[in-house]
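Two records follow; treat each independently.
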Amino acid sequence: MGIISADKISGALSKAQRIGIEEEQFVVAGIALTLKSLRPDEYAAVIAECDGLGDVDYLTAYQVGHIIRSIVEVNGVDLREADFVEVQETAPDGQPKTVKLERHDYLRKYLVGSWGKEVVFVVYQKFGDVVSTAEENAQKGVEFRVQDETAEDKYRRIMGDLKEIEDEVPEELLKSILEDAGFMRMSTAQELKAAMDRTDQLAREQAAREQAAKEAAAAEAVATPPPPAKTDAEAAAEVEASNAEIMAQRQPMNRAAGQLPPDPHQTLQEAVSARQTPVDPASQGGSQTAAQPAQADNAARKRAEKIAALEGDAGVPLEAGQIPPPPSEIPVLTGSRQEVDPKAVTVDQPPSAGINPRWNPPKQA
């Protein structure tokens, strides 16, 4: 078994110490803080402190545990080389005494313990940035041979890594992360059975409501008997009354109720009688001259003669208000039709009267 002195390798190992430990400075609420990434034993210490706590207490203690072990500088005060801090406290007997506290316990009691919940959450988020920076720097210059890794192997490897750190994440935070990604925790048999029982109960309640609605509709239909059937005479009387009411309400547009349109034949006879009746110039107030009545009588006489001729051609003269009967025979136009020779018709010449818009004159040679 070979033995080597630490003095020989201290120089080489000094460069390899604190590898992967990254620091980042930022300002929060006016305080300059410098955080560093943690070592594995510090992560284990945080998990041990949070063991047995409830969900809310676990989340707060989990975040505070990482922050107090990550702070290495506060407003320019360097705490990197300090493992313990001496504090003057009052003993139970009232005498002051010096107490030596570990650095993270001192920061928990005298610094982080006085912060608000929002500040703790913001600083913890910044600690996550420091961890990400450490991971990126650790992978620089390192080449991984994962070309032969299949999709299944990669999925199993990632799920294995997630399963390893699952216990380090609070339950409520883990549920929230899985829900955001579209996943859910494995349900127990009791939870599945309770969910199925609840679904069956809802289905039974819905079916009971539908059956009750059907029964209520059937009971209402039975309670309300249909109206007795009407006889043919009653139905006919009802239709006749309805038609009479409609005809009574129907009237010509812009005419008073009960006023019928004038008979055209009666109007014609009245006009003829008025033309044939001589007009007394005195009744006109003396406004017409002697020549005007004579002209009016001549025009009326000629018009009466024309009307009488038309009535004579139609048959018996019409009485006042009488409608002429339809003709007994349909008149037929008689006469000889002149035959036209199609060859004698010329279509390539202009029309005899007017201008034919479709005629095109022949082109000159």
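The next record belongs to a different protein.
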Amino acid sequence: MSREMRKNDFDIAIIGGGPAGSTAAIHISRAGLKVCLFEKKTFPREVLCGEFLSAEVIESLKKLNLYNKFLLLNPNRINSFRFINEDSSELETKFQFEAYSMKRSVLDNFLLNEAKKSGAKIFQPAEVKEIEKQGASFRLNILNGQGCNEEISSDFVIAAYGKQNILDKKLDRGFTNERSHLNGIKFHIDKKYLSLFPEDEIQIYASQGIYCGVNSVSESEVTLCFLEDRNNYSDSARSHLVSLMDRNDKFADIFNKDFLYVINEIQVYGTGNIFFGRKELVEDGIFMIGDAAGVIAPLAGDGIGMAMETAELLAGILISGSQNKLKPKILERQYVSDWKGHFKKRLFSAGIVQKLILTNNLRKAGIGLVNIFPTILPKIVQLTRG
């Protein structure tokens, strides 16, 4: 196929069309800046995610004036959280905030369409293959869905591409050489394979080196999303799900007898080597948002919320910077400072809780302590919130 080069100029280029990228595009486009967004997959598409929409997501939607439109998508309301250990001990708390669950394919498609309506130029499917700094601007080399190259220039670049991207290695981001041995896996399960499951509750089931969240995401499906420590496992993701059923009786109880006959047919969505440590927030002048800036432990159920909040935070800084003609270095310092103030404590708290949950003795001790002092659990939940 012939290759062609075309030149387009934008104020801001965004890489990634998930909640972070689309939210940033909506805010910035509405402010009158010229925005382009690159998404390498065709929507709707599924990605690894527990698909829990926290209070932070709802607040972000309200700020975008999209809350009422969101409700028309018929999201599933979640009112409580239950944690079930392999020894059948449980913890339960009611949420003191508004929360929902929804398939990512639905949410992402909704937000990206709103970005289009806001005036952002969407390139999809299109993959950013290279970013080069040229004076005060950036040049992006794009491979589009027709196999043609396009060259885009922009004043600023926002990376909103999720947990992992080939650009991380090209930017020589330090964490790309780290090995976390932590894998995330998601399944969508037809409800006909489940016994009675509470529609308004998110449940977490745990055993050594693994925990799995279960919540209803539509009238016909639930999401099973688990994090596993690969130091303790070497088999397939489906076999780990069966292993958790063997070790956690209450987890096994949510499935009916037909489930094991179809488990090998279920689509697997996964990401390996998930890094929960520190990431640089600005790399070679490129602003990182969402999971590209920092991954919160899935147990917190706040990944989408943080993605949308970081997008809103950076959008405000870039809009103000454009209006006041501030230098990029000033904007970079402001973003790093504000991001740490908003998210550093939340990430740290969620990381500590995750370590406790993945370790048998610590998990059992924690459950015992919370059962003695039940007011601790709502406070732990609050520590991982915005």
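Discussion point: Residues 328-358 form the longest helix (31 residues). How would you locate this feature using only the token line?
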